[in-house]
Amino acid sequence: xxxxxxxxxxxxxxxxxxxxxxxxxxxxxxxxxxxxxxxxxxxxxxxxxxxxxxxxxxxxxxxxxxxxxxxxxxxxxxxxxxxxxxxxxxxxxxxxxxxxxxxxxxxxxxxxxxxxxxxxxxxxxxxxxxxxxxxxxxxxxxxxxxxxxxxxxxxxxxxxxxxxxxxxxxxxxxxxxxxxxxxxxxxxxxxxxxxxxxxxxxxxxxxxxxxxxxxxxxxxxxxxxxxxxxxxxxxxxxxxxxxxxxxxxxxxxxxxxxxxxxxxxxxxxxxxxxxxxxxxxxxxxxxxxxxxxxxxxxxxxxxxxxxxxxxxxxxxxxxxxxxxxxxxxxxxxxxxxxxxxxxxxxxxxxxxxxxxxxxxxxxxxxxxxxxxxxxxxxxxxxxxxxxxxxxxxxxxxxxxxxxxxxxxxxxxxxxxxxxxxxxx
Length: 424
Ligand SMILES: Cc1ncc(COP(=O)(O)O)c(C=O)c1O
Prior knowledge:
Elements: H1 9-28, E1 33-35, H2 42-46, H3 77-87, E2 94-96, H4 101-115, E3 130-135, H5 139-148, E4 151-158, E5 161-162, H6 164-173, E6 177-182, H7 196-204, E7 213-217, H8 235-241, E8 248-253, E9 265-269, H9 271-284, H10 290-300, H11 303-332, E10 338-340, E11 349-353, H12 358-367, E12 370-372, E13 389-392, H13 399-421
Parallel strand pairs: 1-12, 3-4, 3-6, 6-7, 7-8
Antiparallel strand pairs: 2-9, 4-5, 8-9, 10-11, 11-13
The protein binds pyridoxal-5'-phosphate (PLP).
Pyridoxal-5'-phosphate binds next to helix 4.
């Protein structure tokens, strides 16, 4: 395969003409494919339908709690035990909530902005605050900061986590940095898994802010679709051992285990963080949906059951991710115009084009009927400084749709790249 950066102008123009014909043929097909969000497919959602069977009879928990009634702010004891096992924390340090872990993270940020966190210097909203944002990252994390007026500093993501030299230097010297977003396993969108060394450094690094928190969004903890579940060092334990027990706020949900719109979310943290949240939550609500928590406890039971269930998800997801690799490889490999990740789990593939191409590629794909996550979304303030990152979300569409969408994406990347190399 020839590196396109070594081709002369006539050769590039010839490629461009061939691609134009293929692109026009795609447009004539009037496709409408949505690859914007990482949603489970209907086949995946079907795997958890047995959870609803006989649901009308399941309202008393194994420890005798009537889940139909009010109460249990911290979550059903059986659900706290299960999520404790899942997140690697004692049940007493777990709060089990509603359907969305994102909502839990949002609520904790709002509480911090309004009231301040334990051990802190008052409400975050009364002083200048910033979060470190490993990028490319999850657009909805960045949107929370933007909405709440928390500044954002992008930090480059590597294969084993964020650039720790930069993280350590900034956190140690800038007292306005009060937080950091991390998706430590099968990260959104690159699929990277944080190494033990990175987790250890995050836990141990000195911070200029006394109330620095790491939002550890472990959304894809058991979501391997290739090989064994990758191990991840426990941040809460590492922080406690390093003398920073309040630093870690760990989150998970069953959004991509059972039902994305009707799962159960949980957080695990130090006793001080848990007590603080429960104190504030006591004004917000009388308790979560314990019936749904009970359904989940009876269906998911324990870690071996969860892992067996996730192997069935993996069977459905693996062919889709393999199709992405196969088609992108066929269209783009060896041309020096794009590189992309090949994750072992999670919900996304991250593709980088040549600098300055992503916006045009996504626009062209949309004009031919394939919607991708908008350019820039994976960076704070939706500004990708190199305009090159594209997030691919292959979980929802059918296999043949993914193949078509990836072929079109490959054609668009080649067309825009040839234009750039021709100086247009
Ligand atoms: C990293 C990450 N965190 C959180 C979420 C949303 O989780 P939930 O449905 O539990 O709010 C997603 C969904 O795509 C995600 O990718």
